[in-house]
Structure formats: structure tokens, C-alpha cells
Amino acid sequence: MRRERKERAIELFFMLNSLVVIIVLLGIFYILISNSIPAFREIGLREFFTSARWNPTSYSQIEYGILSQVVSTLMVTIGSMILSVPLGVATAAYISELASPKTKQVLKPVIEILAGIPSVVIGFLGIVLLGPAIARAFGLPNGLNALNGSILLAIMSLPTIISLSEDAISAVPREYKNASLALGASRWQTLIKVTVPSALSGITAAIMLGMGRAIGETMAVLMATGNAPRMPSSIFSSVQTMTATIAIELGEVPHHTTHYYALFAVGLVLFIMTFAVNLVSDIILHKYEEVE
Amino acid sequence: MKKVLLVAFLMVFTLMAGMGQVEANDGFFEIRGSDTQVNLTGNLAEAFMDLNPETVISVTGGGSGTGIAGIINNQFALANSSREISEAEMEQARERGVEPVRIVIALDALSVVVHEDNPVSELTVDQIGAIFRGEITNWSEVGGEDKEISMYGRQSNSGTYVFFREYVVKGDYSDDKMRMNGNAQIVEGVLSDDSGIGYVGVGYTVDEGEVIDGLKMVNVAIDENSPYVSPMDPANVADGSYPVARPLHHYSNGQPEGMVREYIEFVLSDEGQQVAVDSGFYPITDEYREINRENLGW
Questions:
Q1: DSSP B142-208
Q2: pTM of this structure
Q3: Mean of pLDDT values over A25-43
Q4: Which residue ranges does UniProt annotate as crossing the membrane (chain A) (predicted)?
Q5: Are A141 and B89 in contact (CB < 8 Å)?
Q6: Do strands B210-211 and B28-33 pair parallel, antiparallel, or not at all (unpaired)?
Q7: What is the pLDDT of residues B155-207, one digit of tens each?
Q8: Best residue in A72, A142, A278 to probe B by mutation, most B CBs within 10 Å?
Q9: Beta-sheet strands, E only, within chain A
Q10: Closest-approach residue (CA) in chain A for B165
Q11: Is the CB of A254 less than 8 angstroms away from the CB of B88?
């Protein structure tokens, strides 16, 4: 009887904990929505989503268009994925299938350390090291542009992509590989045609989670992309992302003004974007577990 | 899950920080705001703490906008601001029962800097304005090489951003202007970009009385008929012939009292003004001394 009660209490304790998490998430969502509604009402959905000009502190004409920020954010994020996906998946395949146990022992902690570098440090490297290098390589006056941000974000999302892809690849059942090898396929053919495709849903989920990190990253892109609030014309344009806008402007804005609400609206759009990415990765991951 | 929890903790802490108003007793007070003034104020605070070992002053940046928002919300004792508080902000403060008091602590000549390889060394205020409005886009239009201009400036939460816009740009900044996180980043940007132009507090362009290697300071004229003068010469700033000189401020909530008052007295003393000079800025002129006397009632 007493023991049963004790177990009940433990169960209740854990349930309350997870409840708190859900309440916090709903609370954030509620705050974002309730503070965004005045912005949509005052600015108008049309201007907010279709105007490319964001200039809330303008001299002559105040405008709240997030289009250029959304394009900038997507550009930097997609750029980082183009760089980090092949590199990350190849590294994961190497670690789980080809590397000797010794190499593995070195590589895995090194990748984990990469995840631990603070984003300010990465941003700083973007300014003093990567930026000038990009400028030299492409003959530009300066290297504070979307490409710089993409490379930094690629470095930052690599650990997520590598470790989750590696899990997925090592989870492919031995029998698949043995069957392939027994049919006369080489190790290379087995890896490319059997192992990696079998782990594809796990790898996709890893990529999505890495992308979630890239979209929401603030400090490194704020420092290294130049923050020019125009519509980007190429990867060599200076861009200002949504996260950078919020980080820069929220500190100075008087509370309960249109500008204040507009920043929440930007936050809401960003939240929905990352939420969608996470949801998709969750669905894919779930499917993958069912196959297992 | 971890992230969400972290966010929850952060929210709780931010709320607590917002509610708990920091009082200037217990030997501790806080100064926050202008990035231009961070080093200067840090030096002043250190000098004051050397004289008064029982005092602890915390100095952080964040931009003038952050400082002024903080004084309006009554979060700390003094705000640093490189621009004057606006009418609208004054109103907001009064609604909350706060009466910001303006204290001018030093003068700054906002320096316009280019790469040392750039042949251009003189510009009028109008030309600089046109460059930052995006009307002049090539160095050849102002007597330089045929190169596209890249602009380095501050973000909108910066007092320097606001001041420069009011007095030099007189319009909207070009969307092509790169908005850097601080004075030091602008200097860093111009140093590595031979087509760059930027504006920074004079204290950030010099190292022990000399302009930083690789950087060139532009001499500025009010208009074509006036002399081009350097922000390096204190006389140009004192007599107003350097056109983009500006006062640097502390804002306090009401008349400063106790330790904060002692600190302000130190800042305005000859000793404090010498610290400002050693930090690369200029002492306040009689005109501003008069303004301080009026505002402080001392």
C-alpha cells in the first residue's frame, strides 16, 4: 500500500515536470501571438509579408516589410546546408563504416568539441579570418556577406548532422550489408547503394535538425554577414537575417509601440519556420522508427 | 526539451532582473548604454574606485538606446548615451515617474575614417551625407580612384547611428550600409577594406596619440568654403570648427545622490576630465559646464 503510494507520487512528479515543459512552450507561443496581433493590425498583413523594406526608425518613411529578411535567412540557411550536408553525411559514413576504432575514438570527441565552441567565437573568426579570406578569393572589397554566414553556420550545424547521421547509419541491420556483400558487391557499393539509402530517413531527420539550428542561430550571422537590410542580390551581398534584426532592435525599442509588436511578429514567423522544420524531422524520424 | 527549459529559466531571470530595481546603495551601482562610451566610462569608474575602494561600479555597453530604455524603466543608476534623449522618450519616462537628468561628461569628435591606401583625405559634410544616403557610390565622384564605396556604420540601437543621421546624413541611410556591432568592428572593417568608409568615436581611432596603423582619418569641412579640419586637434573641437563634434552623456534618474553624486563630481573634476583626455576624448567646454550646473543645480 505504502509502496504503491510512493510510486504514484514518483509518477506524478515526472508527469508534472513534462507538463511544465508543455506549459512553457504554449506560453511562449501565446506571448508571440498576442504581441504579434497588434503589429498585423497596425501594419497590415499585406505590407508585412510583401514589402522588402524594413526601416522602423526611418527619417521619412517608416516601413515594416520582412520579405528581404526572410529571403536573407533562407539564403544563408540553404547555403549552409549545401555545404554541410555532403560533408556531414560523408563524415558520418566514414566514422561508422570505415574508420578504425582508434580513428573513431579521436574523431568523435573532436566533433563534439566543435559543437561546444560559442557562437560569438565563431562570429569573431568570421570577421577576422573568413571574411578577409573570402574577399581575397573572390576579389571583393569585403567578406561580410551571405556566403560568410553560410560557411559559419555550416560549421555550427555539422556536429548535429554528423552525430545523428552516424547513429542512423550504424543502426542499419548487419544482415543488409552481409546480403549485399554476399551478392558480390564491393564495400564501396554496399555503402553507397545499401547502407546509406537504408539510413536515409534518419539522415534526413539529422539534416532537418541541423537546419533548425542554422535558421535560429543569431550571434555568428549578426557579426559576420554585414547587416545591410536590403534585398540580397547574390551570395556576395551583405544580408540581415530575422534573428539579427530581433537581437539588434529589441534592446532599444520602447515597449508597446508598433515597432515593438513588429519585432514579435518577426519572432512569430521565425518560430513557425523552425517549428515546421522540427515537425517535419520528427515525422520522418518517426517513420524511420516504425520501419525498424 | 533542454532548450525549452533553458528558455524558461532565462525568462524567469529576465523577469526578476526587470522587477528588482537596482538601488545605488550598498556601495554598488550600474552604468549601462553607449558602446562609444564603454571604455571611457570604464576608465572613469576605475579611477573613482581607486579613490573610493568601498565602491563597486559596473559598466556595460549595449548601445545608447539600451541605456535610455533602461533609465526609463528605472533599471540602473546611470545611462550612457552618445545622443540626447528624445522628446518622445522624455514623455515615456515622465509617464513612469522618472525624470532623466542630462549630464555632459566629455566631448567626442565623430571621426570619418578610410583605408590608408585611399587617396581621399578631405570631405565636406554634404559629401559624407551623400555617400551614406547612397547618392555617391563611387570614390571617383569625390576625387578618389574608380572604386565602389562600401559603407560601415552602426546599428539602429546606437546613439552614434542617430547622431550621425541627424547631423550628417540628414535623411535615411542607404540600405547598402553595413550595420556593425560596435566602433571596434567598424575600425576592423575599414582596416581590411581599401574601398571602405566608416564613422567612429575619436577614441577608437587612436592608439597612444597616434592614428591606428592602416587607418586614415578624413579632414572634414562644414561646406566647400570652410577649412578642412582634423578631429585630432582638441582646439577644433573646442571652438566648434570640427563639424561633427558631440557631447557624451550620463543620464541619471532625478538628481544623483550619495555615491552616484560623488562619482559625478569626480567625473566633472579636473582629474576626471583628464581621464577622458587619456581615453582619447576631449574635456567639456564652459558651455556644457553651464548646462550641467543648470541641470544638476550644484
A1: GTS-S-B-EEEEE-TT-HHHHHHIIIII-SPPPTTSEEESSHHHHHHHHHT-TTEEEEEEGGGTEET
A2: 0.80
A3: 93
A4: 12-33, 66-89, 110-134, 146-169, 190-211, 260-280
A5: no
A6: unpaired
A7: 888 889 989 998 999 999 999 999 988 888 899 889 988 999 999 988 889 88
A8: A142
A9: 54-55, 63-64
A10: A59
A11: yes
